[in-house]
Specification:
Length: 385
C-alpha cells in the first residue's frame, strides 16, 4: 500500500492562511512503515510543525520533490485539509483521499471526487463513538482550539486573568464567559480556570452542566424549553423563539465579562449569531470576544473571518485556524488520529486498507465511493432536505 503525505504549506487558502500542520509525524510514519506500508512525503511537509525531511527519511519514508509525479500510483493520499483539483485529477481510480473535506459546504468538491472514481474519507464525519474516539480528528483539533482561544484573549486583554494581591492593592480575577461547552468550550473552561479567571459557561444542553462544574466553572442556567443533542453529541438547532430567549438571558453575563468566547457551531449548518453589536456595546472598553466560528459564518455580529477587529471599544477576534497556533501539538494529534484510522482497517496479510463499508466507522466517514456520493446525510443536504 502506497501512501502519499502532501505538503499543504505551498498553497495558501482563500484567507491567505498557510497550513502549518502535517498529516504525519516521523513517529506515526515509522509505525506505518513497520506495518508494511510504503510512505512518500512531499518535501517540506513537516517543516512548519517542527519536523525536518531527514527525520522522516530516518524512519523509512521516501521524501519526494514533486508529488504530482507519484500521485498516479498512490493507493491513499492523506492531507490535513484536501488535495488540490490538479492533484485529485492525477490520482488513479479507486484511490482513497483522506482529510478535512468540509463536505457540507464543499458539494462540488465531493461530487468531483466521486466522479473521478476516488474514495473520499472525511475526518469530520468520523462517528463520535467510543471505538472511534482515537481517530476523532475533529475533537482533537477542537480541544487545541479551546486552549488557543483563551491564550489569544489573554494576550489582548489589558489586564491579567488571576487575582493578584500586591502591596498597592488587590487585582480582581478576570471574568470569562464561555458559550458552548463542547470539546473546544470545555478545554477553554479548563484553560481559563487554570490561569486563575472566574469562569461562567452556558450550553443549550443541560446535560453538560456537570462537566462544566467539574472543571471549576459555573454553569449559567437558562430556561429556553426543550433542547437536546444529536446522537453524535452535537447541540440541536434552536427555534427562533429559543434563540431570542437565550440572547436575552446571556446579555447580562456578557456585559459583566472581561472575556467572552463563543464556540457554538452546528454540524453541517451555518453557526448561529449569539452576540449582536448592541450587546457588544454593553461590554466594558478593553473587553475581548473570541468568535470561534468567524470563518464559517460567525457567532458574533461584526466579527471578520481571519482578523481581529474593534467594535465599540471591544476587540473581536475571528482569526480562525486556531490549532495552527500550536502547529506541532496539532500535527502530533492529527497524525495519531490518521495512524489509528489506517491501523484499524489495515490488512496485515495483503498490506492494504480494508474498505469495509459495513463497518459503522467507515459507513459514517466514507462519503464518496465507486463513482457516487454515498453518505445519506450529505445526499439529503445536497438536495436541500
Amino acid at each position: 500500500m502506497k501512501i502519499i503525505i502532501i505538503n499543504e504549506s505551498t498553497s495558501p487558502d482563500p484567507l491567505n492562511n498557510v497550513e502549518k500542520r502535517c498529516a504525519a509525524t516521523p513517529s506515526s510514519a515509522q509505525r506505518l512503515v513497520k506495518k508494511g506500508a510504503t510512505l512518500l512525503l512531499e518535501k517540506g511537509a513537516g517543516l512548519s510543525s517542527g519536523y525536518s525531511d531527514k527525520e522522516y527519511e530516518d524512519v523509512g519514508v521516501t521524501v519526494i520533490d514533486n508529488v504530482n509525479e507519484d500521485l498516479s500510483s498512490a493507493d491513499m493520499v492523506v492531507a490535513v485539509n484536501k488535495p488540490t483539483d490538479v492533484q485529485l485529477g492525477l490520482m488513479k481510480k479507486g484511490a482513497i483521499v483522506v482529510g478535512h473535506l468540509d463536505p457540507f459546504f464543499q458539494q462540488s468538491l465531493v461530487e468531483s471526487i466521486a466522479q473521478k472514481g476516488l474514495t473520499a474519507i472525511s475526518v469530520e464525519m468520523i462517528p463520535r463513538s467510543s471505538r472511534a474516539q482515537k481517530m476523532d480528528a475533529l475533537s482533537s483539533q477542537a480541544s487545541l482550539a479551546g486552549y488557543v482561544m483563551v491564550m489569544q484573549a489573554a494576550n489582548q486583554l489589558p489586564s491579567i486573568l488571576p487575582m493578584m494581591m500586591t502591596p498597592s492593592g488587590t487585582i480582581k480575577p478576570a471574568k470569562v464567559f464561555i458559550i458552548g461547552a463542547g470539546v473546544a468550550g470545555l478545554q477553554a473552561i479548563a484553560t481559563a480556570k487554570r490561569l486563575g479567571a472566574n469562569v461562567l459557561a452556558y450550553d443549550t444542553r443541560p446535560v453538560v452542566a456537570e462537566q462544566v462544574e467539574s472543571l471549576g466553572g459555573k454553569f449559567l442556567k437558562i430556561d429556553i424549553g426543550e433542547t437536546g443533542q444529536t446522537k453524535d453529541g452535537y447541540a440541536k438547532e434552536l427555534t427562533e423563539e429559543q434563540k431570542a430567549k437565550q440572547q436575552d438571558a446571556q446579555r447580562d453575563a456578557i456585559a459583566d465579562s472581561d472575556i467572552v468566547i463563543t464556540t457554538a457551531q452546528l454540524f453541517g449548518r451555518k453557526p448561529p449569531v449569539l452576540i449582536s453589536k448592541d450587546t457588544l456595546a454593553l461590554m466594558k472598553p478593553g473587553s475581548v470576544v473570541v468568535d470561534m466560528a468567524a470563518t464559517s459564518g460567525g457567532n458574533v455580529e461584526g466579527s471578520v473571518a481571519g482578523e481581529t477587529v474593534e467594535i465599540n471599544g471591544v476587540k473581536v477576534i475571528g482569526n480562525g485556524n486556531w490549532s495552527q497556533y500550536v502547529a506541532k501539538a496539532a500535527t502530533d494529534m492529527y497524525a495519531n488520529n490518521i495512524y489509528n484510522l489506517i491501523d484499524e482497517f489495515f490488512d496485515d496479510d495483503s498490506k492494504s486498507f480494508d474498505l469495509n463499508l459495513e463497518d459503522d466507522i467507515l459507513a459514517g466517514c466514507v462519503i464518496a465511493h465507486d463513482g457516487k456520493v454515498i453518505n445519506d446525510m450529505l445526499i439529503n443536504a445536497y438536495k436541500g432536505a
